[in-house]
Amino acid sequence: MDDKYKIFNDLNRVTARSNQVICVSLIIVFVTTLLNIFYTYKTSENAKNNFYLLDNGQKLATVRIKDYRRAMDILCEGHLTNFHQLFFAMEPDLRHIKRNIETKALYMADHSVQRLYNRLIDQNYYEDIAKSGYSIEVETDSMQVDYSRYPYAFKYYGKQRILKSGNTEYRSLVSQGYLMETGATSNNLNGLKITKFDVLKNRDLQ
């Protein structure tokens, strides 16, 4: 009789141990799942606060900014500065000019900039720059972005510094338009697009 009960006791102990293993396994799975969810959430939140510092459309570094308004300021100002540099700063090299505009600047804006570009091509503006030997640099003075209404209206104030055979001349550069948020791409890292772009002033300064 003792041998028979011993078998049952062994079975009970095995069952109890199995139940313990199952309970421990479920606890481990539950805790691991919670940790994975927490890690995923934190990673997502960190990614939202990561923004690229750009220079002429090239990514320099990634910075973390928790204030959304400040982040938008940096993104919008950087986008506008880079666009005006790419579109209005030129060297006397037609291929260089077209590369900056066609493969970079045009991706940062809508068809309003494409129309302006086509109009300047028809006027032989870029060919004249290439033949003249002039170098044109862009200096940003200030910019205003209205965040109270979407899309964000902006006004850009700057100057073109024209280097002519050792002499320096300046042209005013005032533009306006709107900024819309779009998906970031390899051609547009900021995820912003300039719309309804218009040059308000671009004339010689005395």
- Helix segment tally: 5
Helical amount: 40-55%
Q: What is the radius of gyration? A: 30 Å
Characterize the largest beta sheet: strand count, sense, and whether it forms a barrel.
5 strands, antiparallel
Average pLDDT metric: 82
Order of helices and strands: HEEHHHHEEEEE
Straight-line distance between termini: 117 Å
Break the fold down into its secondary structure elements and pairings.
Layout: H1 2-48, E1 50-55, E2 58-64, H2 68-88, H3 94-102, H4 111-122, H5 125-132, E3 135-146, E4 152-164, E5 167-181, E6 192-201, E7 204-205
Antiparallel strand pairs: 1-2, 3-4, 4-5, 5-6, 5-7
Describe this protein's structure.
Helix content is 47%, strand content 32%. The longest helix is centred in the first third of the chain and has 47 residues, at 2-48. Strand 1 and strand 2 form a beta hairpin. The protein is elongated, with a radius of gyration of 30 Å. It has helices at 2-48, 68-88, 94-102, 111-122, 125-132; strands spanning 50-55, 58-64, 135-146, 152-164, 167-181, 192-201, 204-205. The chain contains five helices and seven strands. Residues 43-47 and 56-61 have low confidence and may be disordered. The chain is an alpha+beta fold. Strands 3, 4, 5, 6 and 7 form a five-stranded antiparallel β-sheet that branches. It has a two-stranded antiparallel ribbon with strand order 1-2.
Name its key features.
206 residues; alpha+beta; two-stranded antiparallel ribbon
